[in-house]
Amino acid sequence: MRILHLAKYYWPRSGGMERVVQDLAEGAAALGHEVAVVAVESRVGGRVGGRQRSTVTRVFSFGVLGSEEIAPGYLTAARRRADVIHLHHPHPLADVASLLRSRRTPLVVTQHQDARRPVAHLLARAVIRRAAAVVVPSRAHLALSRELDGFENKTEVIPFGIDETRWAEVPRRPLDAPPRALFLGRLLKFKGLDVLLRALERVPDLRLDIVGSGPEGSRLKTLTQALALADRVRFYGECPDDDLPRRMQEADFLVLPSITVDEMFGLVVLEAMAAGRPVITSAVPTGVREVNVPGETGLEVPVHDVAGLAEALETLAHDPFRREKMGDAGRARVERFFTRRLMAERHVALYERVLAYSQEAVVE
Predict the structure, then answer these.
(1) Can you give the pLDDT at residue 130?
(2) Closest CA to 57 of 23, 10, 123
(3) Would you say the C-alpha torsion 297, 256, 6, 39 has a positive or negative sign?
(4) Which residues, given as ranges, of the chain have pLDDT below 50?
(5) Which strands sit side by side in the sheet containing 107-111, from one edge to the other?
(6) Is the domain of 93 the same as that of 201?
(7) At 137, is the secondary structure helix, strand, or coil?
(8) Same domain flag for 257 and 174
């Protein structure tokens, strides 16, 4: 089967959507399918080989208008032959490209998040209307999406998955090592890092590693100084992808204290669980709550609750045996529900169904 992914960006560009597209492409290629990805690149790029049988075409962008790339070559690159097209929302440029194509090729859409601008919203609705199927990674995505309103009958829940083997060999830290927590992600307001720093202030023997970059970086470093936490908090900035298992190795548990529904899933939670680390998450009503099982794979705290987060930090910082038990449960949960292979297999099965249906429609 020839599968064409229409993505906004692709690895090594950092981000949750980029990681999902990569794992879908490589996962389907590993199952023996011919996979191609079209993505935007901010510098001149050509066609480069992906792993296995996947191919990535990176289209040059002349700049950004609002939040959208100016990449007219995308419309041409997206016309390549395929048996199934898989479009990843939000991405207005790919929406236009898919609407310009013949309707004969079945279209599948993954709704990572709704578009924010009215024109992009209208484009997305037009594409969803045309799509043979829509995929969301959690029930919460379907409940929260305005763009999927009225299209529930064509929507299927397929959880995101990761390459769990990448994290399988991450060793645990010595039991007598000073406890250390980890945050890994973009430094954005909705990530709730100010709540985490204020909670850390109340747990005096806990250290924190912050891995990632973003517009909140300077403010967070200033807050760290103001709270007298500079000797316990390390800011690593953006780390190469290959270094992330090492950063995970140096931590006892992961914290994701997000404060809004912009945190739709949290792939980093799966990565920590696959590495045998318990997680602390906030109770945002999104897919995060369908990944972490409070009391089993980690702890959950109310949104914006500094005292509650401090209590959770205290609990995991001083109970290594509970950390080990939760870490084992998290790894088992990933292996059962959230692997890249399982995600790829379920998507391929969906492609085969929509392709068979479209061929029957042509015959009729």
Answers:
(1) 96
(2) 10
(3) negative
(4) 44-52, 363
(5) 47-49, 54-60, 34-41, 2-6, 84-89, 107-111, 133-136, 155-157
(6) no
(7) coil
(8) yes
- Looking at the structure, do residues 146 and 227 belong to the same domain, yes or no? no
User: pTM of the entire structure?
Assistant: 0.91
Q: What are phi and psi of 254, to 5 degrees?
A: -110, 145
CA distance 319 to 314: 9
- Does residue 328 share a domain with residue 284? yes
The distance from CA 50 to its chain's CA centroid, rounded to whole angstroms, is 20
User: How many whole angstroms separate alpha carbon 108 and alpha carbon 19?
Assistant: 18
Q: State the Cα–Cα distance between residues 340 and 161, nearest whole angstrom.
A: 4
What is the number of structural domains in the chain? Answer: 2
Is there a single domain that holds both residue 148 and residue 39?
yes
Task: Please count the residues of the chain.
Answer: 364
Q: Are residues 199 and 150 in the same domain?
A: no
Longest dimension (CA), the chain: 72
Residue closest to 190 by CA, chosen among 92, 264, 82:
264
Locate 315 and state its tokens.
Answer: 């609990």
What residue has token string 């060999």? 169
Beta bridge partners of 110: 88, 135
- At 351, list the tokens: 């492609």
Nearest partner of 197 among 177, 239, 226, 237, judged by Cα: 226
* C-alpha to C-alpha distance for 24 and 3, rounded to whole angstroms: 10
Domain of residue 42, residue span: 2-161+339-363
Same domain, 150 and 15: yes
- In DSSP terms, 280 is beta-bridged to 255, 299
In terms of Cα–Cα distance, which of 141, 123, 139 is closest to 131?
123
Q: Per-residue b/e over 176-188, b at no fewer than 16 CB within 10 Å?
A: eeebbbbbbbbbb
235 bridge partner residues: 210
DSSP code, position 10: -
- Do 87 and 172 fall within a single domain? no
Kindly give the residue spans of alpha helices, DSSP state H, lying in the chain. Answer: 16-30, 73-77, 92-100, 118-130, 139-144, 193-200, 217-226, 244-249, 267-274, 306-317, 320-337, 340-363
Alpha-carbon gap, residue 171 to 221, rounded angstroms: 30
Residue 256: strand pairing partners: 281
Pair 281, 303: CB distance under 8 Å? no
The letter for the amino acid at 154 is K
In CATH, what number is assigned to the domain containing residue 81?
3.40.50.2000
